[in-house]
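Reminder to self: tokens first, then the designed residues, so the page reads top to bottom the way the pipeline ran.
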């Protein structure tokens, strides 16, 4: 189910007053993350001090193995994009969205090498496009085909995990890669690749903090607190893109030009679950259902737990 390295933060070192605080300190949130994502922004923003619970991080290469771990009960919660969440929920994974964010979509893109003759999506006719099955990259390909009125046989989709897709693009064994940040900026900045299409106007740009139904029932207060801190951290990152880029580059051992390229074109904004967010998720559901790829079509609102809206609002109100 992917790399799983655990790190405990907070909780156990605190002297807490009262039985309820002691009980809270004994709570462990097992949080799944995709490398350089939620944990990175929360550490950069300094919001992980004085946690009233313990936090155990597990890292995954992509959303699909994270959701597999969630379904197996190996983690309580994690962050994923709208497309992989849709597949998991339709397949019966007992989870809900507890916080949703909208992001600009210049970094969700179909990339080619710098020496590729392709300069538009139309130039990829009959070519091989690598992406993760059920990923936002997969969604982008399907959305581009639909907008252009093209059949799915227009190009050959090759399902690969990010590391394999990156290597395949570099080797020329695929002609293009439909992916997301930070992979997009990495290919553009470090390898001279370029976009032939991005997700602006094609993908809803929703990202989710999700949690197991059992964790929502048993660790609700801890999850609420986590959501407040996460929303606060994202607001800090939006206000301080250069400082965040420097922190991220050091943490991930990347040249700072990579995260600067990413953060200066991408805004991630959390918002309470509402009709507009449900409509964005329904677009993803309907496209995959129309493509015959979902186990079942469902009403988007059923996938959200709105009891965390107050925590999102609290994070948005923090100075």
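Designed residues (319 positions):
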């Amino acid at each position: 189910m992917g790399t799983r390295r655990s790190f405990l933060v907070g909780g156990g070192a605190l002297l807490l007053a009262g039985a309820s605080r002691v009980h809270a300190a004994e709570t462990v949130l097992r949080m799944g993350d995709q490398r350089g994502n939620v944990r990175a922004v929360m550490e950069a923003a300094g919001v992980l001090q004085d946690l009233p619970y313990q936090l155990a991080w597990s890292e995954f290469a992509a959303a699909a193995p994270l959701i597999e771990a969630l379904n197996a009960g190996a983690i309580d919660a994690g962050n994923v994009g709208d497309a992989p969440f849709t597949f998991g929920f339709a397949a019966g994974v007992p989870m809900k969205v507890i916080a949703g964010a909208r992001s600009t979509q210049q970094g969700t893109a179909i990339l080619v090498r710098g020496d590729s003759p392709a300069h538009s999506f139309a130039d990829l006719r009959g070519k091989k496009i690598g992406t993760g099955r059920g990923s936002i990259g997969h969604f982008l390909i399907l959305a581009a085909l639909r907008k252009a009125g093209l059949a799915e046989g227009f190009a050959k989709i090759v399902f690969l995990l990010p590391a394999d897709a990156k290597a395949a693009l570099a080797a020329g064994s695929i002609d293009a890669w439909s992916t997301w940040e930070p992979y997009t900026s990495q290919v553009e900045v470090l390898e001279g690749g370029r976009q032939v299409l991005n997700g602006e106007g094609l993908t809803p740009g929703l990202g989710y903090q999700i949690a197991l139904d059992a964790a929502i029932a048993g660790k609700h207060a801890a999850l609420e607190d986590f959501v407040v801190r996460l929303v606060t951290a994202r607001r800090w990152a939006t206000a301080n893109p250069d400082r965040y880029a420097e922190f991220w580059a050091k943490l991930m051992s990347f040249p700072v030009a990579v995260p600067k390229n990413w953060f200066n074109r991408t805004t991630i904004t959390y918002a309470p679950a509402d009709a507009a967010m449900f409509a964005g998720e329904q677009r993803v559901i309907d496209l995959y259902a129309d493509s015959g790829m979902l186990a079942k079509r469902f009403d988007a609102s059923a996938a959200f737990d709105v009891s965390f809206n107050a925590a999102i609002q609290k994070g948005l109100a923090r100075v």
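The two ends are 38 Å apart (CA to CA).
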